[in-house]
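Researcher: Please translate sequence to structure tokens.
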Amino acid sequence: MPDGACWVDLQAVNEPGLVAPAAAECVEQVGIPQPPVSVHLSCLPDCGYVTARRDDRKLRYSVGDPRVADLVTLARALAADNATALDCCPGIPAPPGTETE
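Model: Translation complete:
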């Protein structure tokens, strides 16, 4: 099972409208430093979770197994259904870009 940061990377690769992002684009999407994002993305093709294709000097990633897309969609729906409880849990950080003062 992927760790938390790896899970976030899978979500970025699955983001609608983002066609085959490179690691740097995933970093922008998920708000995690590039080194762990690059490490995770380099391992995910071995699992079949994503595919990687060379685009000049970048590797671009896309969902390799349709079940990954289904899993991300289901996880987002579960989180949305429980948003109030999750927001109150001090052990769960807010997703990047959603913090409120």
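Researcher: Any highlights?
Model: Residues 11 and 71 are 9 Å apart (CA to CA).
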